[in-house]
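Two records follow; treat each independently.
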Amino acid sequence: MKTWVMAGALALAACAHQPAPKVAATPSAGEVAKLQQVGAAVLFWSQAQRDANFPHMERVFPVHTVRTGRRIRPLPEGTPLPIAAADVDAFIAANNVAGLIVVQDGKVRLERYARGLTREGRWTSFSVAKSFTSTLVGAAIRDGYIKSVDEPVTRYIPDLAGSGYDGVTIAQLLTMTSGVRWNEDYTDPNSDVARMFTRDVPAGQDPTVAYMRTLPRETAPGTKWVYKTGETNLIGVLVRNATKKPLADYLSEKVWKPYGMEAEAVWMIDQTGKEVSGCCLSVSLRDYARMGQLALEGGRGIVPASWFAQATAAKAQTGRPGYGYGYQWWTYPEGRVGAQGIFGQSILVDPARRIVIAMVGAWPRATGADLSAARAGFQAKLIEAAAK
């Protein structure tokens, strides 16, 4: 792995009791070199390194801060979930979980911390950030900065004109069905996700756009789903171009302050001082749960009335029966939806039972069918307990 942005895709977080994270306009040459060095090793960190770095990545990467407002949305205590504490402890220990919270009907029924995380701390989002970035598109449509998801991407990112993104809509970018060829293999140093930020960028050009415009078209837009972190980075560019605001500021304005998030978040920036929107948010466990609650409630006053119904509908098939992809949200069996990131980060929303489950951790591997199955099984157990 040779790209520093992979470190952002794979790790970051901060603890609220630590000194306020720095706000950097543009990383220095030394910082960029440091990012590249850490990015080369992040997938191969030891468990001790993951535990040490996942809650403190602002010490390694320059960030922008997502500010809170004066009002905090309460998460009152609910009836404790009828599940054996020993079962919860065993799952947490076996799966390197740092934080687990279950909210039903807006009330906390279970909340646990481990691995040094506390209620006041923050933890890496990895690709859970994609669902936050998607929400900013909805906010920009409500605010009139963007007219519709049916508009062409090139209207807001004109530097993509003449590339494989000609004729691609915002909706197709959101659903990762652009038809542009992409390789997301984190273990392949020649993959697109590994090379995206390694190339020299001409002065004044966005590094994501400069790379993405070189990619060829593989299929017609709208016909094939391929997971592409680079396209979520493009969504961030699109929102930034439309609103003329840094993403951290817009997230603060549209979500953190009006919805009443509890703790400041931090968002890693690239070598040009722009947020890496496909990953790289550090958020408190309770605020991850609030994000799930916002989606469950429909985001009234933040996004258009129908936004989350559209965003969490399966608009693309991922090749696994019952599992689909919406506007940067995953869809699951039984009508459940969620956000997920490697190394064990997730937000699960069960609309039928009005449940949100947020979980953060430091899996021993970035991904794994066994790890995902264990999490899904425990989530189902939590939902079953909540129904009693």
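The next record belongs to a different protein.
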Amino acid sequence: MKKMVSKLVGAALALTALGFTGCEKKQAAEKQVIIYGNSDDEAVAAFKNALDENGYAGKYIFQSFSTNELAGKLFAEGTDIEADIIAINTFYIESTQKANSMYKELSFKEDCLVPYEPYYLPFIGNYGSIIVNTKVMEEKNLPYPKTIKDLANPVYKDWLSVCDLAGSTTAWYMFLPLISDYGEAQTKEILHAIYENAGPHLEMSGSAPLKKVRAGEVALGYGLRHQAVKDKRKGLPIDYIDPLEGSYSMTESVAMIDKGKKTNPLAEVMLRTMIEKGRKDLINDYPVPVYAGETVSPENVVPNGKVFAESLTAELFTKHRAISESAK
């Protein structure tokens, strides 16, 4: 009897062990895909909708970071980062790939209108513009600027809001036309005057200038063009001015971390879904054509869109940020 009991207990333990092993394998197979991003709420919503509507609800975790925080993690952690998919400014993906060789080449291609590398795909494009509150401009009898350089005019002191390159990549949209047209020395002079005019309205957040222009706290600012277009269409007293220096485009992209045998098999499938199914919502919120066949309304067509002469990299961003700091 003792022998029989012993055998039965042993068999039960063996079955239990097999059961746990089976559960562990099932859990490993169903491990959630982890997505890290620095995107706006609209882009995150578009990604989530695309994934949820195509059978991936509950199979991923989306975690948002500030741009500086996420970029720092990418440089510091490389392939050891917890995330499976990254969504961030394209120049950070290219720079961290150069530094860490951390992204897996994708097994598919898309008909993209902008140059891209095999290890990432752009998901949105953006341009900057001068943004004005027409009501406040009239009340304060302020002249409408035609160039970014005009923002240095002392008449705008305390009525201007711009973001700081030390805190937001959105500030690069204003910086690139200046450095391209006026060179480093004159750009420092112009920025110094602009920062003086902004005073307490020099912001660390890229969306802050538009919010202050909307609220009437300031009369004008510099921000993302499509947001001002949307506000004007809603009937708000907001307008946008495409500066004569031109508007430089930048993209944000998604990439997959190369974790070798530990790469989650769902990661690339989800990444493809985010692009192919998410673009219908993304282009509504960020109306810049990125893929073949996409069209936008006339007001969203940038009349003087440009591409910067140098490749946009994290190193170039750091260099330009130093110039900006020296202008304060």
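Discussion point: The two ends are 88 Å apart (CA to CA). How would you locate this feature using only the token line?
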